[in-house]
Amino acid sequence: MSEPREELTWELFGAASRELAEQIAADGYEADIILSIARGGLFVAGALGYALDVKNLHVANVEFYTGVDERLPVPIMLPPVPNVVDLSGARVLVADDVADTGATLKLVRDFCGEHVADVRCAVVYEKPHSSVQCEYVWRRTDRWINFPWSTLPPVVKRAEQVLDA
């Protein structure tokens, strides 16, 4: 029998993203930019953008996971890399679906670090072993998470797209 998993439905994601936005608003944090970590963070960033009335959304494409609990040795940022001029002096909210190892969030947070006024992280889930403790978390779990956007297999399976590290 396989390990129990955390199940996030689309309906629960709607409630989770709203509660995450309420946490951020209650903290008084007013982001100028929401920087999404693609792909899972795209959903979170979109929902937070609407809830927090932030229209300035950017994307960082990061490759790390290659399968269920399978990953590259280190995360790599894929082109197009966000332009630091666009982030300069801004209050940036980094949005992702999960802080698992924390390596992806650390890469993006550190990328922003010296260029922005302030950078904070918001995730739907945070694992206890994450190297990054996010400022805004909807739920903490040590389980594998089934997200509604990645549970079903792709309709079309494309050739491997991972860049050689």
Automatic annotation (TrEMBL):
Pfam families: Pribosyltran. Residues 10-151 form the Phosphoribosyltransferase domain. It comes from the Bacteria. Keywords: Glycosyltransferase, Transferase. CDD domains: PRTases_typeI. GO terms for molecular function: glycosyltransferase activity. InterPro entries: PRTase-like, PRTase_dom. This is Phosphoribosyltransferase domain-containing protein. It comes from Pseudonocardia hierapolitana. The lineage of its organism: Bacteria, Bacillati, Actinomycetota, Actinomycetes, Pseudonocardiales.
